[in-house]
Design brief:
This protein has 474 residues and is α+β, with helices and mostly antiparallel strands. It is built from 12 helices and 8 strands. The chain has 3 domains: 245 residues, no CATH class; 94 residues, no CATH class; 99 residues, no CATH class. A 6-stranded antiparallel sheet has the order 1-2-3-4-5-8, with no helix packed on it. A two-stranded antiparallel ribbon has the order 6-7.
């Protein structure tokens, strides 16, 4: 069983890693191309980022290989031979479950000990790459502001010869707006080999400069035009050298911490949030919005008494207007203060949720290896189809179901709409019964049907989650 499982697992794992790395390159292709990066930097970035991809590839490879292994046995009637010899399906699947448990333990150790280091290095290196200024990527009809204090627009660009046509350059170096404009019929642009200067050669154009001067209190703006047949403009470029950032800049982020660090920082964030909330509540109730008396509403200082029925009963029309205006001002101040405090609390809750989410993910992702074996192996016994096509399709559907649920509830947890302790485990809560159900069906040789009570159960579950979501909003 293990020999029939390990081969497809290795194939599926490396194939999945290859696809995920291609997806990563496709996602960040705009940040990597055209920046003069050495191939060593790109390979280093892929290596560190592959640590994060490893935790996605491991469960998917386990699912796909378990379907392929058991499906091959079923297709060649070897499962039937096992059962004829009195060996039950749970006993047949025991080696696969043992391997899945080893994968789960290894995945947890990797996620807790090595993945934070990989994430820290990948985040720091990706930050450096994104800070790396690109070589001039001027597109047709688009204003390019990648050069400090200058904005360039080119109407047409010949990709073969590099000839630029209908060039427009705004000079903002004087800090007074669009007072200097250069227009040229055509030109060429190039960067020196040391990437410190950019040389722009212009042909058949003119420069418009709006000069500012003052004379005896009267403001005058003279206008100057310079025509040229050829002119070279030299720009000094900064920020083109690739520089390494200190890892300490990102070391306190949630994805760069292990379980112990996450627990410690989560407790600190929770205490800080609670103390800040209490302090804000005290400051709010001690603010001017709640500390007022009769003199606050009566600017004339004329004393008046408050009636038990209405404090406006003994006030004239002018005083009532003063009271209403003062109350409206205080209400607006209170509303503004509460809005600022709510935004502050939302940010504090978001930071706390990120750490709680990461803490639970270190358990749910490795555990998914066991769940996927419980789903994949029985499905392989049911469909009895080996090869790669059908198992890949089924594993892709199951994998999408798991991660769609995971990503959806993770977003709800980040926005404080669901408790992270429940939201992050929803993918496990949904797929674990599914795996147990498939295991039961496969061990009893029953067909998978959809009777009415299945549909009623799905409908009930949807109603339950909808009510839960509405209560969380309230």
């Amino acid at each position: 069983m293990l020999r029939s499982f390990i081969g497809p697992f290795i194939l599926a794992f490396f194939m999945t890693m290859f696809v995920l790395i291609l997806q990563f390159l496709w996602m960040w292709i705009d940040e990597l191309v055209g920046k003069g990066l050495e191939w060593k930097v790109i390979l280093e970035l892929i290596f560190y980022y592959s640590g994060n991809l490893f935790m996605m590839a491991l469960p998917l490879a386990t699912l796909l290989s378990s379907i392929m292994a058991i499906g091959n046995l079923g297709e060649h009637n070897e499962l039937l031979a096992f059962k004829s010899a009195g060996i039950s399906l749970p006993r047949i699947l025991a080696p696969l479950l043992a391997a899945a448990c080893l994968f789960a333990v290894g995945g947890f150790l990797f996620s807790n000990n090595l993945l934070p280091y990989f994430n820290l290095k990948a985040t720091t290196l990706l930050y450096d790459v994104r800070q790396q200024r690109p070589e001039l990527q001027i597109k047709e009809g688009v204003f390019y502001d990648g050069i400090t204090n200058y904005t360039i627009r080119v109407k047409r660009k010949d990709e073969k010869t590099g000839l630029l046509s209908d060039i427009m350059i705004y000079d903002h170096s004087n800090g007074s707006g669009n007072r200097s404009l250069t227009i040229a019929d055509s030109g060429y642009i190039r960067i020196t080999s040391n990437q410190k200067y950019l040389i722009l050669t212009l042909y058949n154009g003119c420069s418009y400069d709006e000069l500012k001067e003052s004379n005896a209190g009267e403001r005058k703006y003279p206008f100057r035009i310079n025509e040229f047949s050829m002119e070279e403009i030299i720009f000094e470029l900064t920020g083109y050298g690739f520089e390494r950032t200190d890892d300490n800049l990102f070391k306190n982020r949630s994805k760069m911490l292990n379980l112990q660090q996450l627990s410690t920082i989560s407790d600190s964030l929770k205490r800080e949030r609670d103390s800040r909330m209490l302090l804000q509540a005290q400051n709010f109730f001690l603010s001017s919005s709640f500390r007022f008396g009769a003199s606050d509403f009566n600017s004339s200082g004329k004393p008046y008494r408050f009636s038990a029925d209405s404090m406006l009963a003994t006030c004239d029309v002018e005083q009532q207007q003063q009271i209403a205006d003062k109350a409206l001002t205080l209400a607006k101040q209170a509303q503004s203060t509460l809005a600022v405090q709510a935004a502050d609390m939302q940010f504090a809750n978001h930071e706390l949720n990120l750490h709680n989410i990461e803490w639970h993910l270190k358990f749910t992702i490795p555990l998914s290896c066991i769940i996927f074996v419980l789903i994949g192996a029985p499905l392989g016994a049911i469909i009895r189809k080996g090869g790669f096509g059908t198992p890949f399709l089924i594993s892709l559907l199951v994998f999408m179901l798991y991660y769609i649920i995971s990503f959806a509830f993770e977003k709800l947890a980040k926005n404080s709409e669901w408790d992270p302790r429940i939201a992050i485990w929803m993918s496990t809560i949904v797929t674990l019964p599914l795996g147990l159900f498939f295991s039961y069906k496969a061990s009893t040789d029953q067909r998978i049907t959809l009777p009415k009570w299945y549909l009623n159960a799905v409908s009930w579950a949807g109603t339950f989650f909808e009510i839960r979501h509405q209560k969380s909003k309230i």
